Amino acid sequence: MSEWITLDTHHGPVRAWQVLPEGKPRAALVVIQEIFGVNAHMRGVAERFAAEGYAVLAPSFFDLVDGPESDPDALPYSPEGVKDGLERVDTLGMEKALEVVRAAATRLTHYGKVGTVGYCWGGSVALLAAMRLGLPSASYYGGRNVNFLDETPKAPVIFHFGAQDKSIPPEAVQAHREKLPQMATYVYPADHAFNREVGHAYDPDSAALALQRTLDFFTEHLG
């Protein structure tokens, strides 16, 4: 079952795409968007995790920038869409983003333990959810991660990067291993956004392996 619900946050209402599995959920996940919003791809990601038994919320973070009536599919996968998406995440800021994650996680607590999984900008928000909110998290190609690696984590994180990702150089990936050696950091023969089925960067083999590792991680830490 999937539908839009509304989260109440300190900064205003935020829609979230809710997907519930068949039967009793094993645990719960907050899916954290890329810079393009909770579009059809991100809703599909939420549905994939629900198919694995998790209750899922994918908050529409940009509602705090564009309003709750905005079109979640509005930003295209194009240079203009990238520009507009980056402007929105910079306007939103990490502190407000974390408050949205907190609201979603609180909403999910009656389904069991809660974790997060995030992609691109969302990968860095997922890292902060582990660092500051104590939520076990999977971080996919988080380009802003290096800004937060000196913080002390309150929960485990698993990291996924693409070896061909020019926006995240090898020394940035190595910094994860050096500063958070207790966390698993994986590199795949792929580009940025290798998990996204839409676009030239999609690498199905890397996406499948990263997903399996992520599911194993959540089985260990959420159940």
From TrEMBL:
UniProt entry keywords in alphabetical sequence: Hydrolase
Domain of life: Bacteria
Gene3D superfamilies found in the cross-reference section: alpha/beta hydrolase
Molecular function GO labels: hydrolase activity
Source organism: Stenotrophomonas cyclobalanopsidis
SUPFAM superfamilies: alpha/beta-Hydrolases
Residues of the Dienelactone hydrolase domain: 15-221
Protein name per Swiss-Prot or TrEMBL: Dienelactone hydrolase family protein
PANTHER family reported for this sequence: ALPHA_BETA-HYDROLASES SUPERFAMILY PROTEIN, CARBOXYMETHYLENEBUTENOLIDASE-RELATED
